[in-house]
Amino acid sequence: MAGASKAVVDSRANLPFVYRQYSPEQLREVLHKMYLIRRFEEGAEECYTRGLIHGTMHLSIGQEASAMGICMPLAEDDQITSTHRGHGHCIAKGAEVGRMFAEFFGKTTGYCKGRGGSMHIADVAKGNLGANGIVAGGIPIAVGAALSSRMMKTGKVVVSFFGDGANNEGAFHEALNMAAIWKLPVVFVCENNGYGMSTSTARSTAVKNIAERAAAYSMPGVIVNGNIFSEVAEASFKAIERARAGEGPTLIESKTYRHRGHSKSDRNRYRTKEEIEDWMANRDPITLFENELRDFGFIDDQGIEAIRDAVAREIADGIEFAKASPAPEIATLENYVYTEHA
Amino acid sequence: MDAAMRELSYAQAIQEAMAIAMDMDERVFLMGEDIGVYGGAFQVTGDLVERYGTDRVIDTPISELGGAGVAVGAAVTGMRPIFEFQFSDFATLGMEQIVNQAAKMRFMLGGEVSVPVVMRFPAGSGTGAAAQHSQSLEAWLGHVPGLKVIQPATPHDAKGMLLAAVADPDPVMIFEHKLLYKMKGHVPEGHYIVPIGKAEIRREGRDLTIVATSIMVQKALDAAAALEGEGIDIEVVDLRTIRPLDRQTVIDSVKKTSRLLCVYEGVKTLGIGAEVSALVAESEAFDYLDAPIVRLGGAETPIPYNPDLEKATVPQVPDIIAAARDLVKGVR
Amino acid sequence: MPTEVILPKVDMDMATGQISRWFAEEGAKVKKGDVLFEIETDKAAMEIDAPASGTLRDVTGKERVDIPVGAPVAWIYADDEVYEAGTTQNGAPISPLVGEMSAKPTKGGAVPPASQSVAPPSALPFLRSSGAAATEGGPGISPTRGEIGQSPSGGRATPLARRLAREAGLAIADVKGSGPHGRVVRADIEAAIAAKGAGAPEQPTADTAPQTPVEAPAAAPKPMSDDQVLKLFAEGSYELVPHDNMRKTIARRLVEAKSTIPHFYLTLDCELDVLLALRTQLNAAAPMKKTDKGEAPAYKLSVNDMVIKAMAMALMAVPDANASWTESAMVKHKHADVGVAVSIPGGLITPIIRHADEKTLSVISNEMKDLAGRARSRKLKPEEYQGGTTAVSNLGMFGVKDFAAVINPPHATILAVGAGEERAVVKNGEIKIATVMSVTLSTDHRAVDGALGAELLGAFKRMIENPMGMLV
């Protein structure tokens, strides 16, 4: 056994970033979480189609490596702001799927006590300041959180997730500019999945790569393949180091793809089935990472199976917890609008 | 001068409140456009940057949306920002962060956070600044659950309510009428609080209740003084806070006088007067009304540039005198 | 295990959906991802892909029918799975989620299980709200300009003046108003009180009886929740039949009627012998008419037809009882439009014989047959069952002796008709046998007082016992 692990260690020098940076246990945990995100969203989708969850939801299936890669180098008390497509960010930052399901079911045990739902999922204790229903709405808030970090000298770094659609909002430009002039510890992460609802970036955005926007605000603009965990994590690691060192913000463009439609009422009229199938069959981030782990000897088929089984149990338990949880009393309707006075 | 009767201008009172807040709590800081060496468009921040430095008196770029969002983000993560919009009209540019983020964040997150941000809005007409720099938009924000909206009408209240706002765990929007900035009045030294959500009876009377906000409080008092000679005894209620409204003070006053006149500078239709009228009509004070309820509000027009037109746009003292006299004499 | 194909939720606020088209039929081979069917929503059609590969079986989701979200519409059997007809439809819940769906909602659960979801209002037109019916049925009830402000308590007055007048036992109408437009203000009431003398305010008169504002009535006791009801019965001892729209409308309207209308009841016996004899004579005299099914009498009167006519004529004789209550005015009708309760499968409906006072018995009879027939096939138009000025409900054919009916707003009366039966009656000190029918008139006490109702019922009895009057 000792020989085997020595072989792993020896071979690491030539492996991609994350295999050098993180322990095999940590990397297996990444696979576990990527599966957890995938199965959580599939479970949520299943509950939705059966009418157990109302409203709508925006699934990030296909973008798991992006969420995990960005959050991997973050410390527990570092903070993020998230988007309407934020389930993955929430899990990657450490949320429990049971309380997330409970929120989707509108229960009091949910992260937002049934007031927020999918679009406002948050986990403040783990540093997730919340998903946001307004495109680019969370970007200035992240800059404000970074300002707090500097003024209170907490050393926290803030990551602001947003999609390609947000890069044409005024808030994006105002926030990037302010973060740059004040050199705040914030990392801007554009998860470019190719479409803002139905409109492709080619049709909506004057620059070819959103990372090019960084030049206008004198910050590094980095493009990564958002479906390759190691690439994303490496870029995130560097940007977070830079932010923590007081050198200012970075814009990371994580190019990825969502397998599902924009929301539950999307008919996929703006892209072809072939395109979707190609991404699913050839560029699935979980498959890519799993194969790498296996090829590099960090896990075997048995280990993968064990992860899948564990995730299936967590999801089933989470749904059960949500179902069994109490719904809010109508009498509490106006709670949490203002701070309650003791 | 007797310290007990010390007088300050409304602008000086706000500045003093901000200085006291920053002295008392290192989490408090100021953000806004040109609030540093320039001293703010209306010289409200004045020389605070010299006393507290650029780390705590932060000039922002001309980015109302981003600036408001940064203030919200800082508030959620433990700071106590006071954000100045250069003109209340520019609230329109920051509306997303005010209405969708600041007001709702605590609610959306099930009470897991609070948003102790203070936003200041120099508002109102009378400066010849025309349609985009003269509006009174307080009723817009008063319509949003999650926000608190105040309109101090005196230097004393401007200081005390700002200190209350800074101490408040929820987002507080302060609408300051620009013509009040030079108004002088007694302002106690040191820290004191004028509570949010509590109206003040500025003048007691038995024939008519005038509910007024901001600069209209002084105009109502002037009108009341003029009508005294005619034997008309007017009670003036300074609403001070428009969300949450102090319903009981209004109801009690109308029960006493049996007549209600609402005076406010914002556009009359769907304005504060509509809410005050409706709350009286819905309350036990209805059975005490001895005359129709009357509103005097801003005309249904953008604020014009021409000074005579501008004056005609908002209620003036003679308008209030006429309306009050008609109500009490039973002409309306 | 075969894969369930459900009707998925594809849009916000979607409780049910319709399959507009199937692209694969029973027994077809499908591949995962193939388009199986199309769902029509308010906004657009959505194509739904097969969730698995295999053979499509048990296609129960019919096209163009409302299907609850989450309900299975078909099953897909993998190639190695054996299909036995019908097994999957009736099979046990396939996944834990299906179990949740068919179970009762968790206490206070915010998300109603799909199986309980309410179908959107269907095309079935049934009684509209009483408000709409009242407006249609009652011409000329909106106050004219001159009447505005002329409320029951007098002319224009401020709320304060009204309250003071109430407290002093003064009628506003008796006080001259000094305010604009003659409005009575506080000073006027105070002057009126002073004019009455410095003594105590006079005792309230009967007319102004409710002196103090009426306290809000105590909240009605809440009906038992579904759960509470079901708990009283052993599981498996019952079957749950979801309400259709007609059942819901009936329930809502009857609760509304019984809880908002002060009902008042009057019962009377009518002797039928003369009427029955006349009916036999009239039917025997019916001319023959050619119809699709050969020759048939041109009419065949029933007792009920004669009850309808008698009720219409009674209302004409006592026009004050031919009324509808509205808050602002009494609606006095000029014709008698008689609704007749018709029992139909799953409920009842009340088509209206319009102007029954003017129609002959044969016209009423034939019209009634047509309306009842179309009511049973649910083909009535709304204008055929909305409005009316009274109603008749006859349970005599079931042998019911006497009952009290619930008023169907906007009516102010309804006549409940029992069976005609031979009873011993005492006449001039002798016991005789007569065919007697008991009728009970329910009145809306706001519109028809006891004496007026008795007068109406008396007129009805006279008409029934002197039926020749209905012929002229």
TrEMBL record, chain A:
Record has Ligase as a keyword: no
All residue ranges annotated as the Dehydrogenase E1 component domain in the record: 33-330
UniProt signal peptide: none
Cofactor requirement: thiamine diphosphate
Highest taxon of the lineage: Bacteria
Reactions catalysed: N(6)-[(R)-lipoyl]-L-lysyl-[protein] + pyruvate + H(+) = N(6)-[(R)-S(8)-acetyldihydrolipoyl]-L-lysyl-[protein] + CO2
Keywords: Oxidoreductase, Thiamine pyrophosphate
InterPro entries listed in its UniProt record: DH_E1 (IPR001017), PDH_E1_Alpha_Subunit (IPR050642), THDP-binding (IPR029061)
Its job: The pyruvate dehydrogenase complex catalyzes the overall conversion of pyruvate to acetyl-CoA and CO(2). It contains multiple copies of three enzymatic components: pyruvate dehydrogenase (E1), dihydrolipoamide acetyltransferase (E2) and lipoamide dehydrogenase (E3).
Name the record gives this protein: Thiamine pyrophosphate-dependent dehydrogenase E1 component subunit alpha
Source species: Mesorhizobium montanum
Automatic annotation (TrEMBL), chain B:
Source organism: Mesorhizobium montanum
Superkingdom of source: Bacteria
NCBIfam families, alphabetized: PRK09212.1
Positions of the Transketolase-like pyrimidine-binding domain: 8-183
Gene3D superfamilies per the UniProt record, alphabetical: 3.40.50.920, 3.40.50.970
EC nos: 1.2.4.-
Keywords tagged on the record: Oxidoreductase, Thiamine pyrophosphate
Cofactor(s) needed by this chain: thiamine diphosphate
Pfam families, per the entry: Transket_pyr, Transketolase_C
GO molecular function, one term: oxidoreductase activity
SUPFAM superfamilies on file: Thiamin diphosphate-binding fold (THDP-binding) (SSF52518), TK C-terminal domain-like (SSF52922)
Keyword Oxidoreductase carried by entry: yes
Protein name per UniProt: Alpha-ketoacid dehydrogenase subunit beta
From TrEMBL, chain C:
Subunit and partners: Forms a 24-polypeptide structural core with octahedral symmetry.
Function text: The pyruvate dehydrogenase complex catalyzes the overall conversion of pyruvate to acetyl-CoA and CO(2). It contains multiple copies of three enzymatic components: pyruvate dehydrogenase (E1), dihydrolipoamide acetyltransferase (E2) and lipoamide dehydrogenase (E3).
Cofactor comment text: Binds 1 lipoyl cofactor covalently.
EC number(s) reported in the record: 2.3.1.12
Pfam families according to UniProt: 2-oxoacid_dh (PF00198), Biotin_lipoyl (PF00364), E3_binding (PF02817)
Sequence ranges assigned to domain Lipoyl-binding in this UniProt record: 2-77
Species: Mesorhizobium montanum
Protein family (similarity comment): Belongs to the 2-oxoacid dehydrogenase family.
Name of the protein this chain belongs to: Acetyltransferase component of pyruvate dehydrogenase complex
GO molecular function terms listed in the Swiss-Prot or TrEMBL record: dihydrolipoyllysine-residue acetyltransferase activity
Cofactor(s) it depends on: (R)-lipoate
Comp. bias intervals (Low complexity): 110-121
PANTHER family, sorted: DIHYDROLIPOAMIDE ACETYL/SUCCINYL-TRANSFERASE-RELATED, DIHYDROLIPOYLLYSINE-RESIDUE ACETYLTRANSFERASE COMPONENT OF PYRUVATE DEHYDROGENASE COMPLEX, MITOCHONDRIAL-RELATED
Ranges of residues in domain Peripheral subunit-binding (PSBD): 156-193
